[in-house]
Amino acid sequence: MKSFFRHIRTYIFRGLLAIVPLALCFFSVKILYTTIDRRFTPMMEQIVGFTFPGLGILLVLATPYVLGVVTTNVVGRQLAVTLSVPDKRVFKRVVLVEYLKPGIRTIGFVTGTIRDRKSNDEALLKVFAQHLPIRRLVQWWQ
Description:
With 142 residues, the protein is α+β, with helices and mostly antiparallel strands. It folds into two domains: 2-83; 93-141, no CATH class. 59% of the residues lie in helices and 22% in strands. It has helices spanning 2-48, 55-83, 134-141, and strands at residues 93-99, 101-116, 122-129. The longest helix is centred in the first third of the chain and has 47 residues, at 2-48. The mean pLDDT is 78.
């Protein structure tokens, strides 16, 4: 009986995860359309002298397009600069490193190597580390 309720709970949760983004998208497009259509249709009618059917739909499609272009060119470029490293093998190797205190580890990605001059030119790994320790991740997941 427990597994039946777990099954029901799991699939209800997954269904909500599928419905919520669709509903948010639908309502945001509806609000955007009514706002744009109410404001720009009368203004265009005064300027041009006649109504332009479908103007609201065109503006609703143009708005996410412009936002997508701006996001891609501004945010995407900043991310590309931030994550670009001259070495072609960026994030090719995953390691576990101790984090903050002994016994707590976190996932890290090797980004390169450096030489430690103080300890006889020992090769050290440069690691990009996540901020969520493994122990906390396991506790959160359970």
